[in-house]
Amino acid sequence: MSYFAAAVVRDEGGWNAAEVNLRGATDIDEVADRLRDVEPDAEVSLLFVEADDAYLVLLRLDEGEDLRVFGSDSAFAEESRLGALLVGDLKTSVTGLDDVDEPPSATAGGGDEESEQPVVDPEADPVGDADILADLGISAQRLLKLCAHEGMLPADVTAGVCQVLGCADEVEELREV
């Protein structure tokens, strides 16, 4: 399974990005240590892990502590060792989605094609902390919609999130290397 892992860290000088090698990691704590190592004094550290154009996992550390994790689909844990390592222990499924607002066109009775698309992919089973980016401007509902939007790849979700955060250029530079 191929993957791309980009750490985005914020300190007093703003956002910086670095690619993180997850090969050989034995547990989620070791992954968190690798994220910490990118910038030990970071206020916020995020790790975007994209796998096989199908799965996205976000990890977050605030001031190096309190690891929080969100996975776009629990099936990732069954697909690979990396998936099992990152989301295998997550028990909190984000399937209730009662708080997810439908697109305006769907509630207004509009006849456009968007209103016929489900808000959340019925095949996906997002797990973990969907509020992981709420204080950074991306609500749980928005994150879930990005992950479930038809045709959106994990790289597209990462790019969208990083655009809001103000670090899209830094992450894009990592992809070009």
List keywords for this structure.
single chain; 177 residues; six-stranded antiparallel beta sheet; 32% helix; Putative tRNA adenosine deaminase-associated protein; tRNA_Adeno_NH3ase_assoc_put
In terms of topology, how is this protein built?
Elements: E1 3-11, E2 14-19, H1 28-38, E3 44-51, E4 55-62, E5 65-71, H2 76-79, H3 81-87, H4 104-107, E6 127-128, H5 140-148, H6 154-165, H7 168-176
Antiparallel strand pairs: 1-2, 1-3, 3-4, 4-5, 5-6
Helix pairs in contact: 6-7
Organism: Micromonospora matsumotoense
Protein name: Putative tRNA adenosine deaminase-associated protein
InterPro entries: tRNA_Adeno_NH3ase_assoc_put
Description:
The structure is a single chain. By secondary structure, this protein is an alpha+beta fold. It has helices spanning 28-38, 76-79, 81-87, 104-107, 140-148, 154-165, 168-176; strands at residues 3-11, 14-19, 44-51, 55-62, 65-71, 127-128. The longest helix is centred in the last third of the chain and has 12 residues, at 154-165. The protein is globular and about 40 Å long. Mean pLDDT is 86; it is low at 96-120.
